Amino acid sequence: FPSHDIFLFYILMRQYFQETVSVASTLLLVFSLVHIHFSRIGFMVISSPLFTIASFLFLTLGIQKKLKRYFFLLGIFLSLGLYSYNSFLPFPLLIIASMIFLLAFKKIDLQNFTYFILPFILLSFPLVHLILTKPEFYFSHHVHYSPVPLNENLLPWTSKFQQFFYNGLHNLKDYFRGGQLDKIDAFGKYPSIDSICALLSLIGIILFLKKRSIERYCFVFVFLGTLMTVFLYTGHVHRRLLLITPLFYFFIGGVFEFINSRKLIRYCGLVFIGFYAYLNMERYFYEFRRSEFTRFVFCSDLYSSIKKIMEVKGKSISELIQYSDRWSCHYETVRFLM
Question: Where do runs of H (alpha helix) occur along 109-213?
Answer without folding.
Answer: 110-133, 135-138, 156-177, 195-210
